[in-house]
Amino acid sequence: MANNYLSISDILVSNEKVPCRFLHDLPKLGFLDPSCTEEDLKAGTSVEIPLWLAESLSSRRPPLVAVDLPKVYKETYREIFNADACTVDLHKLAQYFFELGCYVAKYDIKGEVATTLVNTFRQRFKMILSASVSTDSINALQPLSSSERDRTASAMASEKALSTWLKRGDSLLTTANMVANHRKRKRAEMEML
Amino acid sequence: MDEEQLDLSGEEEEITADVVLKTIQTSWQNERLSPEILPHRNDMVECMLGQIQHMERNINKLPKTDLRTSIHKMELSRIKYIICNYLKTRLEKIEQNCIIIINDEKQRIESGTNYLTPLEYRYAQEHLLNIEHHLKQTILNQVPGNMQVFEINKMSTVPNLQSHVFLKANETVHGIVLEDHFGDQDEEIDLEEGSQHILQYKFIADLVKNGKVQLI
Amino acid sequence: MFGEKVIELLKESERNRETLDQYNDEKIRQIIEEMHVLFKLNMNDANATTENKSLWTTVQVRHSALERNKRCLLAYLYNRMNKIKILRWEFGSVLPPDIRELLSDAEYDWFSKYSTNLATYMRSLGQDIGYNGIDLTENLRPPKSLNIEVLCLVDYGKLELEDGDVIMLKKNSTHFLPTSECQTLIRQGILKQIT
């Protein structure tokens, strides 16, 4: 994914923790495992580490860790998602469900994670699409993952812009985005003082 | 013979201005809707700028309250908007993908098929230099030795050529291959003149550049 | 040291996607110091790997952490650069002082260079046919009418129009002006279009 190096969103996704089993001893790195009391990390320990570290270590030859699937992508949850993905609170359960899933899917030899991801996306997309016509239905939706929220916000902005344009026939010239937002923030900060 | 020539030259001028405007509008639309930077139409832009000068001179000759003044001024303001937006869109793409664009352009310059005007190319190079300088000064020169490299490959942002676009075929085109990434089911389709489709940009990129299809 | 601090930095900037925050000089310094600590630890352990082979894996882990910190710092700066670019298009080439404060000196330097690069490009547009350049930061919206009614939001002072007329822009005064001459002031939040 050469394109993502500077993407803050990708950096945040790769900060999510995944369970791993260390295949070698790691002297002086005991602090990676919060339950470890020694200075050294022994081979065979299972620890939850950030995705970026897991990917880096598992891609070395020989691999230093074996990556396991986070519980959201395991069988029990997969069944829930395949049954009815729309009732799941993705905000609480897995903010970066889809993005992290893309990374994690390659550690699933059976390919079932990939299928679940596509399936879940389809179900929830339909739900979001039909709800985006009105703000009431949007607010009634089950909480969404981070990227779903972004997409919903932009869908609503487009709807609003379209209906304004249809009503007015054109649009007013407005204060530039950043200028307006800076002013708002300044006002809010001054009110707090 | 002379009379005919006079008549023709009168018509020619009208057709030319109209054609130029249409071409600019098409190029503008394509540029806004395509994920990558397209070959420049500087010849058209300069032609249009010349037209604008001409029109402005004519408007100034008319009395201020003449109805035609308002109409012409609106027309001018529309044309200026299109040109400005066209150039601005190109700058945005240059800024976002400057590493890739500069690399590709180096090769294209050698074969004489450059996409950027010389001014745009200089802008791109200067932009990259500024970014590199800033990052080196602020971060890269302060971090430990082996981390100081400005890794140009990682820093490049590549336009997403796989994004879908709406297009209209200006003429009938045969044999467009739609590759299937995940399987072997490549598809081959034809586009009828006047038909409209949604396709992934990369399959029709060349057709946009040679005018056979138009992004809508 | 393994990227926690730098993530705080990035989360801060993600929280306010529409505006620019104060440049966090302090945190950046700390992160760079952490990187130096990691590097030193690695240098020592790399020398010791001849006695203890398993130290080599530790060195690799720390190296990954160094790369991670570098990536995050670059992303932080790059993301700010993009926002600063927008400042040029929205506020103009002179920044209001409260905005200027948000940038580090190096960033302001970058802003000036970006501004100059843009100005050079715009100035040379149409040069071959006798144009003095085109200001691309004008003409940002499709024009709908030649004149518009505006309300003045602040005490701006005198504005000289193209035809030589001078008008006084006092707070709460309304005016009927040519669109082309108000565009910038509207974008900067000095005038507001009404009707």
Please describe what this structure looks like.
The complex is a heterotrimer of chains A (193), B (216) and C (195). Chain A is built from 9 helices and 3 strands; from the N terminus they run αββαβααααααα. With 193 residues, chain A is mostly helical. In chain A, strands 2-1-3 form a 3-stranded antiparallel beta sheet. In chain B, helix 1 packs across helix 3 and helix 4 crosses helix 5 (118-140). By secondary structure, chain C is mainly α. In chain C, the strands form 2 sheets. Chain C has a 3-stranded antiparallel beta sheet, covered by helices on one side. In chain C, a hairpin with a 5-residue loop joins strand 2 and strand 3. Chain C is elongated. The relative contact order of chain C is 0.09. The A-B interface holds A 2-3, 5-6 and B 153-158, 160.
Strand residue percentage of chain B: 5-15%
Tally of helical runs of chain B: 7
The residue fraction in helices of chain B comes out at: 55-70%
Gross geometry of chain B: flat
- Shape, principal axes of CA atoms of chain A: extended
User: Which strand order does the major sheet of chain A show?
Assistant: 2-1-3
The CATH topology assignment of the largest domain in chain B is Methane Monooxygenase Hydroxylase, Chain G, domain 1
Uncertain segments of chain A = none
Provide the residue-averaged pLDDT of chain A: 84
Low-confidence region ranges of chain B? 1-13
Structural class of chain A: mainly alpha
What is the domain total for the residues of chain A? 2
Highest-level CATH class of the largest domain in chain B: Mainly Alpha
Beta-strand content of chain A? 5-15%
Q: Structural class per helix/strand content of chain B? A: mainly alpha
Instruction: Give the overall pLDDT of chain B as a whole number.
Output: 85
Provide the gyration radius of chain A in Å: 22 Å
Total strands of chain A: the figure is 3
By CATH, the architecture of the largest domain in chain B is named: Up-down Bundle
Distance between the termini of chain B: 44 Å
DSSP summary, beta strand count of chain B: 5
